[in-house]
Design a protein that fits this description.
heterodimer; A: alpha/beta; seven-stranded parallel β-sheet; 9 helices; about 35% helix; B: alpha+beta; disordered C terminus
Chain lengths: ~250, ~140
């Protein structure tokens, strides 16, 4: 605005530069770079998200027990503090790297990129990234993963997809966890959760799991194996970073 | 830390790059677009900007936020539904594609120039290797226990 009379004319020494770039362009570029690393090594990368305590680490422990004879698995753990989760994973004989974010409420592509320098990808089939427990912030940051999976535990409300639409919409699969507890809960209806998810559009599938007392992992392991097969069948030549950023 | 802080930090870094490559004396105004489905709260971002701009070339800059509404298209019947709907209003289909409302974009930057205006330039988005931050504290051995 002009300082003399307040008209819309700009003073001569100002210039407006059209940018029209994503606010997270730097993160997206780092994510595309990570994805190239993953594709070069033919490793399937799954980003696990949920609220704290929904059972991400327990699901990973049960998955490792079920699949470790057939697939080489590694885990990147994200938490604000402690390496408790990485220690739980390592106890199953699988490499695990802990990222402690300090105060950050989510992982970003640069944090994962730094972790990759300490985690050899050669020979791996499957890499899980367990994001910081949080149903809001992790949804906005591409890490370079191939699939986003969000857990919804039956000890939370069945209206969670309606309350946190962004993260559930960003998911390729929703895992209803701790379903062995459904018998003792009278306030969680899986059908209502499915309806709330469907109301978000996009048709994200939902499967049921129980990871601890009486493990029920059939649908989950089937989904993973389909994804692993699809990843192996994908062309080895990774797309160029620029092309992926435009996609 | 809410993710609006991370987004604000990324915004200020990008604005500083644009100001530097154009030899600006100061940043007058930054305009961004936030879609209703972007998961970013405009009020939180505005509050973050007011604090984080201090000491930067954008220390006195105004932040203008343009909110964009949600529009979806049904994958089954192709109908575009009115705003605020995520499932098709025509056929009830839930397989839909978001046409608008997920944007999170830096639209433009208004700069006060130190010298004569030249052709405006956009710096390239930095390589990932140059983005490694000191706060990236990866701990623990990658080897099995």
């Amino acid at each position: 605005m002009c300082n003399t009379c307040g008209c819309a004319m700009k003073p001569a020494d100002t210039v407006t530069i059209d940018v029209l770039q994503g606010l997270l362009a730097a993160n997206d570029r780092a994510a595309a770079h990570n994805r190239e690393h993953f594709d070069r090594h033919r490793v399937l990368v799954v980003n696990l998200m949920s609220s704290p305590g929904a059972g991400k680490t327990a699901l990973l422990e049960a998955t490792i027990v079920a699949l470790r004879e057939r697939y080489r698995i590694a885990v990147i753990e994200g938490d604000l503090e402690t390496d408790n989760d990485a220690a739980r994973i390592r106890a199953h004989g699988v490499p695990a790297l802990q990222i402690t974010t300090g105060s950050a409420c989510h992982l970003d592509a640069q944090l994962v990129h730094a972790a990759l320098h300490e985690l050899p990808l050669a020979g791996l089939d499957l890499l899980f990234i367990e994001n910081v427990g949080n149903l809001v912030c992790p949804a906005g940051f591409d890490l370079g993963q191939h699939r986003n999976v969000t857990l919804l535990s039956v000890t939370e409300g069945d209206d969670k997809p309606a309350k946190y639409p962004v993260i559930f919409r960003a998911s390729d699969l929703v895992v209803l966890s701790k379903t062995d507890l459904l018998d003792v809960l009278d306030d969680f209806d899986p059908a209502r959760a499915a309806t709330a998810l469907r109301a978000l559009g996009g048709g994200v599938p939902m499967i049921h799991t129980a990871a601890r007392r009486a493990p029920a992992l059939g649908e989950w392991l089937h989904w993973l194996e389909c994804e692993l097969r699809a990843r192996r069948a994908a062309p080895l030549r990774a797309p160029r970073v620029d092309a992926m950023m435009e996609a | 830390m809410m993710h609006e802080l991370s987004i604000c930090q990324a915004l200020l870094i990008r604005v500083a790059e644009i100001a530097a490559v154009n030899g600006a004396a100061a940043v007058e105004r930054v305009t961004i677009e936030i879609g209703a489905l972007a998961g970013v709260d405009p009020a939180l971002l505005t509050a973050a900007f007011a604090v984080m701009r201090a000491g930067s070339c954008a220390a006195t800059a105004a932040l203008r936020i343009e909110s964009t509404g949600v529009r979806i298209e049904c994958l089954a019947c192709g109908t575009e539904s009115p705003p605020k709907r995520l499932i098709c209003t025509q056929c009830g289909g839930y397989r839909t594609r978001v046409v608008a409302g997920e944007d999170l974009r830096l639209r433009d930057v208004e700069l006060r120039l130190a010298g004569l205006p030249e052709l405006a330039q956009l710096p390239p988005v930095p390589e990932p290797s140059g983005l490694l931050r000191r706060r990236a504290r990866a701990s623990g051995p990658g080897a099995t226990a």
